[in-house]
C-alpha cells in the first residue's frame, strides 16, 4: 500500500497470539501465506504503509516517535472496529524489534496478565529485549484485571498497547489512563475504503490483478464495509471466490466481479445508504420523523436500512432515547424506560441479535401517544434563564442546616409539604422574577391527559386561589 490511500485495518479476529516476532528487524518481514485471509495478507507492515489516521502518522507525532525513536511509552488506542488498532500494535512491535505478546480481554484473567508481564520482565533482564503487550478490548477487563497491568506499565517492563472501542474515560481505570498516551482513531471514509480495495486488487499479496471490480460492485462493498477496511477486504475476497466458482473462461484473463456476484457473495442486498454523506442524515431524519409521525412500518424500513448499511447500533439507540423524551414524554411514561432498556440491550448483547431490541423499541415508540410538552417546557425555562431572569432563591427554601443560617432568616416560614393536605402546600418555590411562569403545559394526549388534570390542581394549590396560569 501507499500513503495515498486513506484507511488502515486490524488483523483478523482469527489471529493467534505470538511471543516472538518474525525475523528481519524493523518490519513485518514474514509475508503471510497465500492461503491466509486477504485481510491478513494486505495488512500494513510499516508506518509508511499505514493509510488514513494522518494525525497519528505525521512527522514528530507521538506514534512516529515511539516507532522511529524507539521510545518506551504505553498506548491506549480508541476507535471503531477495523480502523487499525491491532495493526498499530504489531507495527510498534516489529519496527522496534520488540517481542509481541497478545492478551485477549475476552478470555484472559488476572493470572494470564501477570504471567505475561512476568515473562516480559524475565526477557528484559535476560537479554535486554523489550516486549509489546497488546490487550485487545481492554474495556472488557475488570478493575482487578486492569490493576494487574499497572506494575508492568509503571516499571516499563512492557510497552502496553491497549485497544478499545468504548470511551476509555468510562471503561479504563484512571491510573492506567493517566500512564498511557491516548490516541483516537477515526472511522475510515469511503475514499479510504475504495483505496484499500483498489490496492488489494492489484497487489501481489492480494488478488494480484486476477480480478477486476465493476464500479457498482465497488460502491456496494464500500457501503457494506461501513468504514471497516477489514470487513471490506473480507467481502472482496468472498466476491472474488464466488467469481472463480462460476467462471468458465480463460484463467489468464482477469475475472470481472459484478454487482450481482458481490451481492450474492456477502448475502446482502445493495443498500443505497451512505454513512458519511447526505444519505446518512436523510435516512436518520426520516427514521425519527416516521416514529414521531406514528408510522411504525416506515420507521422499521429506515431502521433496517441503517442496520444493513452498518450503522453503529449505539447511535440508533441514542436517537431513540432522545426521541422518547422529546416527542413522547409523559404521554407514555414508559417510553423512556423502553428506549433506555433497548440501549442497554445493545451494549449487553451486541449485533446482530440487538436488532430485535431496536426494532421492539422502534415499534413501541412509534405507536405511543405523542407529546412535545417536555422539550417545550425546558426550552421555555432556558429562554428565561438566558434572558437573565435568575432571581434569588426564596429565603424559606434556602439551606438552614449550618450554623448561623437561621439568623439570616434561612428556612423561616418553610412549609413541610408532607404536613399539608394531599401532600401539597401553598408556597412560593420559584424566584420572584419567574414566580408566575408556566413552562410545563401538558397536552391531553395519552397518559398526559391525567397528568394535565393533576398538574392543574396542584398548581392552583401551590400558587393559591386565583393565581393559576
What does this structure look like?
- Helices cover 46% and strands 7% of the residues.
- The chain is flat.
- The strands form two sheets. It has a five-stranded parallel β-sheet with strand order 2-3-4-1-5, with helices on both faces. A two-stranded parallel sheet has the order 6-7.
- By secondary structure, it is of the alpha/beta class.
- The protein has four domains: 38-184, P-loop containing nucleotide triphosphate hydrolases (Rossmann fold, 3-Layer(aba) Sandwich); 190-266, Helicase, Ruva Protein, domain 3, CATH 1.10.8.60; 278-367, Zinc Finger, Delta Prime, domain 3 (Up-down Bundle); 377-463, DNA polymerase III clamp loader subunits, C-terminal domain (post-AAA+ oligomerization domain-like).
- The protein has helices at residues 38-41, 54-57, 62-68, 85-95, 110-127, 143-147, 150-154, 168-171, 174-178, 190-202, 215-225, 229-246, 259-266, 278-292, 296-308, 313-328, 334-349, 354-367, 373-386, 448-463; strands at 74-78, 99-104, 131-136, 159-164, 180-184, 211-213, 255-257.
